[in-house]
Write a structure and sequence with these properties.
9 helices, globular, 7-stranded mixed β-sheet
Length: about 190
């Protein structure tokens, strides 16, 4: 079994290989990839994502890594709509569960005008590689399978890599290795164990 550092070291050659852009999913779309890891390696993975962005984005190639931290993205959307402060006040009065449901509705998750998917779609360029991070930070408001299931509507010809703190076995996502998300079959394992 490879160490986290050995697995992380395999990412750069894989994503910069020209064949990475032509990796086709089951529906002939550009492949979605998941880099799963043990949650205790979160800070190592975050640091490596920064390294990868710096390396690829400052290279002479035309590729660019465009990272979307779902937690930061959610805060930006809520703040831009004037909902963030209201959420804090609502949580004090009505509790966390009420705010979770209200936040999901505010973001329009799974609807045709899903604000998270819209946010990403408006900021992606044709030569990007999309990195999705912040999965653990934004749970349980935004679920990883919801993003993966809906992102294809906006980002169908651009490679996507989701950094997932848990396990992905090619069919099932288990956040933190314990919380079962819905099944997801379209993604490839970015780096094997």
């Amino acid at each position: 079994m490879k160490t986290i550092h050995e697995r992380l070291d395999e990412i750069l050659p894989k994503i910069t290989n020209p064949s990475f852009r032509e990796n086709k999913g089951l529906g002939n779309e550009v492949g979605y990839h998941i880099f799963d890891y043990e949650p205790e390696h979160e800070m190592i993975v975050r640091n490596h994502v920064e390294f990868l962005k710096d390396r690829v984005n400052n290279d002479a190639s035309d590729q660019r890594i465009n990272e979307f931290d779902l937690y930061e993205l959610m805060l930006e959307i809520l703040d831009g709509k004037g909902y963030l402060r209201k959420n804090f006040e609502m949580e004090k009065k009505k509790g966390s569960q009420y705010v979770l449901n209200a936040t999901r509705k505010s973001l329009r998750l799974t609807l045709n005008n899903d604000l998270v998917i819209q946010y990403i779609a408006e900021r992606v360029e044709p030569n990007d590689i999309v990195f999705i991070t912040g999965i653990g930070k934004v749970f349980p408001i935004i679920r990883s399978h919801v993003i993966l299931n809906n992102l294809y509507k906006a980002v169908d010809q651009i490679p996507v890599v989701m950094f997932f703190p848990g396990r992905y076995d090619g069919q099932e996502l288990r956040l933190f290795g314990e919380i079962k998300d819905d099944n997801y079959y379209r993604a490839f394992q970015l780096v094997d164990y």
